[in-house]
Every structure is written in structure tokens, then in C-alpha cells.
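Input/output pair, single chain:
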Amino acid sequence: MEIENGAADAHANGPHASADAHGNGPHDPPTYAVWRSTAADPAFSEWLRSASEPDWTAVVTHPFAAAIISGEADMRRYLVQDFQFVDAFTALLGAAVAAADRFESRVPFGRFLGQIVTDTERSYFHRALAELGAGADDVISPELEPVTVRFRALMDEARVSQEYPVILAVLCLAEWIYLGWASRAAEPLPERFLYREWIDLHSGPEFEAWVGFLRGELDRIGPSLGEDGQARVLGFFREAARLERGFFDMAEG
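Output:
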């Protein structure tokens, strides 16, 4: 996939694509109500995931993800661009705290924001980018790839919406799909921290529990949204999946 084409495709088929009276575009899957009537797992989050194919599987099995697992990926371009999401992702987590419909749901977002994003993950980025010889300009103001621009815009759109289901859709896709590829790694992991810690950050019991929480929130509120609301959530989830695929294509070069 060419980077520009990937970004354009995501824009054309994303949450603003034309839809019929039921909120479905010409290439959209069945509504949740129709799908769940025959699904082995009727969870709302599983409907979102299955509807994101083939992009979901393309990311989870992506050659660049496999190269990270094997310790052979060229991480410089990938991490320089990925670091540009940290601020937007942090703001999106803050929006989730504000938009959540109950206290019990706000707490995990606040905990993850404080313990992981602003501490563990940020520390990894600084050490990894230094290891890769990235200068201040590369870290603070690099030339952004088109797919990076589109993904940050999607995060910002979800944040500004202040719609909890929409915010959840983008957060859940981003975290769940990373768990998907990172969970394919088997011991022994690469010795170099550049790869090992990146895999560890996106796998293991704690990260699985975090993704399980995000999925559980979607499963809790999704079925009661109505067709229009469900279609809106699906649009954001699918566009995020397309952009993740485009991002990995960009990283592979």
C-alpha cells in the first residue's frame, strides 16, 4: 500500500463516508442486530473487530510486526512517527475519564494514564529514540507521514466529540490490535531492549486486562446505542484499523 493511498482510502471510507438510512455505507457489514443473531460470540466488541477485516488480520500478521518480534525491524522511522501520537493519545485518555458514564469506568483510565503512558511508555520512547540516534528535531518536530497526520486527526476528532462510545472505539482498536500482534511473540524474546520492551508493553497479563476492560466497556454500552450510534462507533473503529494498517505499511517502507 502506498502511504498516500492508504490515508486517502481511510478518509474516503471512514466515519464520514456516505451512508444509507440505517447508517451503513455500500461496503459496510450487517448491523449489529443482524450479525449477533447468528454469531458464535455476540459481544459488541467482537462485531467491531470482525467488521474491521481484512485490516485487522493484516496488522496482526504484518511483516513489520513479525520483524519486531524477531528483533530484525528497522525501528527508527516507526518510533519517530509513533512518538507523535503520545500527546494525542494522552489527551484521548483524559477525554475518556471526563466522558465515562460512571466512576468505576473512570478509574482504570486514570490509572493507565498515570502508570503506563506518562511513565513506562514515555521512558521507553526516550531511551529507544536515543539508542536509534534520533535528534531533537526528529523527536519534537519531524516531518509527519500522511498516515500519521490522519491518525492524529482521528484521535483528536474522537476527543473533541466527548462521546464516550466513540472515544472507546479508537482507544480499544489501538490497544487491542497491538495486543494481537505482540501476543504472537514467543520466548525467548529478542535480547535488545528496543524490541523486547516494546513487545512487553503490549502483551502480558496487565495489558490483556487493560484491553479486556476496554472491550468490556464497549460490550456494556454498545448494544443499547441504537443502529445510528452503533454505526458511528463502527465507523471510527474501522477507520482506526485502516490507519493502523497504513502505519505498519509505512514503517515497512
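The chain has 14 helices and no strands. Residues 1-14, 16-26 have pLDDT under 50 and may be disordered.
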